[in-house]
Amino acid sequence: MNTNQFGKKGWTPDRIKDLNDKTFVVTGTTSGTGFEATKILLSKGAKVVMLNRNPKKAENTIKTLKQELGNHINVLNINMDLAEQSSVKKAAKEVIKTIPKIDALICNAAIAQVPQQMLTVDGWESQMGTNYYGNWTLQALLFPLIEKSKGRIVTVGSMGYDMGIKTIKFDDLNWDKDYTPNNAYSQSKLAQIMTIYELQDRLKESGKSDIKAYACHPGSSRTNLINTSGSFMMKFIFNLMKLSPLTQSAEKGAYPQLMCATEPNLDQNGFFGPTGRSNWTGPVGEHNLEPHAKDKAVAKRLWELSEKETGIKWNI
Ligand SMILES: NC(=O)c1ccc[n+]([C@@H]2O[C@H](COP(=O)([O-])OP(=O)(O)OC[C@H]3O[C@@H](n4cnc5c(N)ncnc54)[C@H](OP(=O)(O)O)[C@@H]3O)[C@@H](O)[C@H]2O)c1
Predict the structure, then answer these.
(1) Potential cystine with 11: which of 5, 79, 147, 284 (Cβ 3.0-4.6 Å)?
(2) Which of 17-21, 106-110, 228-232, 263-267 has the lowest mean pLDDT?
(3) Helical axes 181-205 vs 296-310, angle rounded to 10°
(4) With 60 as the cut, is the pLDDT of residue 1 above it?
(5) Residue minimizing CA distance to atom 27 of ligand 1
(6) 244 vs 255, residue with greater confidence
(7) Ligand 1 contact via 106 beta carbon (within 6 Å)
(8) Which residue, among 173, 74, 48, 57, has the nearest Cα to 123 in the 3D structure?
(9) Rounded distance from Cα 42 to ligand 1 centre (Å)
(10) Rounded to two decimals, what is the model's pTM?
């Protein structure tokens, strides 16, 4: 096993210094790891722009954060439904109008284990449409501001990248044949991760070394993920798992994304998450990534397909 560069305890938020002059954009902060990451960033003095689909929940989130941290915190919400391209485009415009810089965009929001094949309004399988194409468009549209800020893009993936078919089902991206919740979810998370490494290559080719892109995951964390979009059976299984040491707190699940957003000189080539058994829990650091996540031919094809499907090109 590799030794953890951050010591036995792994990376923890103690390493974050003052974030007073920093601005973060975080998606999906009304629960789980996104909420915990936002709370820690705010507690270190950062400004956080939250992107959420449910305005009422977002309002309550701000109330809770103020109750816990004080009224002085610098936080605001912009509405965005990652499952709808028009909403993502509107939110990106609003972000650009509202803040002059982005030190890190943390793409945390997702749905998981949707029991049946469902299509988004744009016509994609729901997990691919939300987790993948939603993030594709958000990242591409905010890229110019991130570039101007010499900022970072952080994608919250999943160990699911190494489950399911372990590649992109180009001939049936919507799973019209053989839909299973896990295969479709796993593909969407693999696609998210692949795009980060492909983005790194494209940035390198253009000599843009000031912008960084990172892929990480929260291990197995006690959040609302399965309760929000999973089947009754998945909810039952995951709620049982939550009682076991196979899971960790949502706060610990937030550490990998916080590390990728704030840690200076972190190697972009790595994949970051808990380093304990199966990478579900344990000290946070860099760990093994299976080669299929960096399959160049697949990543390039996916990038080109994404440009065609969304009509959005990155200005790299
Ligand atoms: N928990 C785990 O064990 C685990 C494992 C592997 C990977 N992950 C990844 O970790 C990330 C965070 O998930 P979590 O576990 O913290 O789950 P969570 O508690 O369900 O939080 C997900 C957040 O994403 C938001 N969201 C969902 N769909 C959205 C949409 N269409 N538009 C905008 N926001 C949307 C949710 O909003 P609402 O409150 O409105 O639903 C919520 O704020 C995800 O990327 C997930 O794939 C989690």
Answers:
(1) 284
(2) 228-232
(3) 100
(4) no
(5) 110
(6) 255
(7) no
(8) 173
(9) 19
(10) 0.97
In contact, 145 and 174? CB cutoff 8 Å: no
Give distance in angstroms: CA of 170 to centre of ligand 1. 25
152 lines ligand 1 (CB under 6 A): no
Sequence-ordered alpha helix ranges (H) in the chain: 32-43, 55-69, 85-98, 126-127, 135-148, 181-205, 225-229, 232-241, 250-262, 296-310
CA-156 nearest atom, ligand 1? 45
* Residue pLDDT, tens place only, 138-165: 999 999 999 999 999 999 999 999 999 9
> What are the CA-CA distances from residue 161 to residues 71, 248, 287 (Å)?
40, 20, 14
Going from the Cα of 235 to the center of ligand 1, the distance in angstroms, rounded, reads 14
The pLDDT mean for the chain works out to 95
For residue 227, what pLDDT is reported?
A: 75
First to last CA, the chain: 37
- Which one, of 45, 11, 38, lies nearest residue 263 by Cα? 11
Nearest by Cα to 230 from 84, 110, 111, 145: 111
Dist CA 192 CA 186 (whole Å): 10
Instruction: Give me the half-sphere count of Cα atoms (radius 13 Å) on the Cβ side of residue 171.
Output: 2
Average of pLDDT values for 91-109?
98
- How many angstroms separate the alpha carbon of residue 32 from the centre of ligand 1? 7
Q: Is the CB of 222 under 6 A from ligand 1?
A: no
